[in-house]
Specification:
Elements lengths: L9 E6 L5 H10 L3 E4 L6 H9 L8 E4 L5 H15 L6 E7 L2 H11 L11 H18 L2 E4 L5 H12 L7 E8 L10 E4 L20 H8 L2 H23 L4 E8 L5 H13 L4 E6 L7
Parallel strand pairs: 1-3, 1-4, 2-3, 4-5, 6-8, 6-9, 7-8
Length: 291
């Protein structure tokens, strides 16, 4: 019985040069695949043996195969036959295609020569490669025509096909101090400098938002309670949509003046709030500065 897509051990990516293999493998890396680019087909069975012997440490592998001649195609056919005989390896082939006009235009835009026509016109190489890959395309489990897909749309399609059902968005919650600059990798930034500041309470000043006294102080105000309700309402709405669109990582940055009290407390709250729904990592960038 053939395994469903999200249970495969080995995905072989091939297709026409310029059809989007690089974009596809970038997205697969984001989805947790161990990716190997331009592996000689003759080495596929040996690589599959390494996967089988990894004891589960390597679960999802994508191999990008570029065919550069008849001998490569023959060795790939032999390798696929050997894979079929391996009891613990389940593989599928993803073939990326596009029409000739689009491929020619892409080669013109990148100013690259086609690998099968290094000194000739791109169309000559495209037609040669299409003939060479005709049989392999027939063996593919999945075929994507990228003629009318932007790189972003192709990534979204790959995500829909290969995201594990139980794969969860990783939400990186980071507190920071505006006085030290906004994190350059932040996707969402929330400013909590309007909340009452524990810095002006002598007994709380040396502590951080991870200490119970400071945490309780931040959240005892009506303003804080109303804000956290609006913030979590926003995140409750947006996070599932980020995940649906195939985003694997999201950085939510919470900033106060020094990054020691208010932003830390809010970040801790969010970490606890979403830890059962997403892969949550909480980091306090500036909490120890100035102590």
């Amino acid at each position: 019985m053939e395994k469903p897509i999200n249970e495969i051990n080995l995905l072989i990516i091939t297709g026409l040069s310029g059809a989007g293999k690089t974009v596809a493998v970038q997205k697969l890396e984001d989805l947790g695949f161990f990716c190997v680019d331009n592996l000689p087909p003759v080495l596929i069975p040996k690589f599959a043996e390494l996967i089988d012997q990894s004891g589960g440490r390597i679960e999802r592998v994508a191999l990008v195969i570029d065919l550069r001649g008849r001998e490569f195609f023959d060795s790939l056919s032999d390798s696929l036959e050997r894979l079929s005989e391996m009891a613990h390896i389940s593989y599928q082939i993803l073939f990326l295609d596009a029409n000739d006009q689009v491929l020619v235009q892409r080669y013109k835009e990148t100013r690259r020569n086609h690998p099968l026509a290094p000194t000739g016109l791109p169309l000559e190489g495209i037609k040669s490669e299409r003939r060479l890959l005709e049989e392999l395309k027939g063996r593919a489990n999945l075929v994507i025509d990228t003629s009318h897909l932007t790189p972003s749309a192709l990534k979204s399609k790959i995500s829909q096909m290969f995201s594990q059902m139980n794969e969860r968005l990783t939400v990186n919650v980071q507190s920071f101090g505006f006085k030290y600059g906004i994190p350059i990798d932040a996707d969402l930034v929330f400013d909590v400098r309007f909340l009452p500041n524990p810095h002006y309470v002598d007994t709380l000043r040396p502590k951080t938002g991870k200490d119970t006294e400071v945490y309780d102080y931040v959240f005892k105000w009506d303003t804080s309670k109303e804000f956290i309700g609006k913030l979590t309402g926003f995140l409750d709405f947006t996070l599932p949509h980020y995940q649906k669109e195939g985003k694997s990582q999201l950085v939510v940055a919470i900033g106060c003046t020094g990054g020691k009290h208010r932003s830390v407390a809010i970040a801790e709250y969010l970490g606890n709030r979403y830890q059962d729904q997403y892969n949550v990592r909480v980091n306090h960038r500036d909490m120890e500065k100035g102590r």
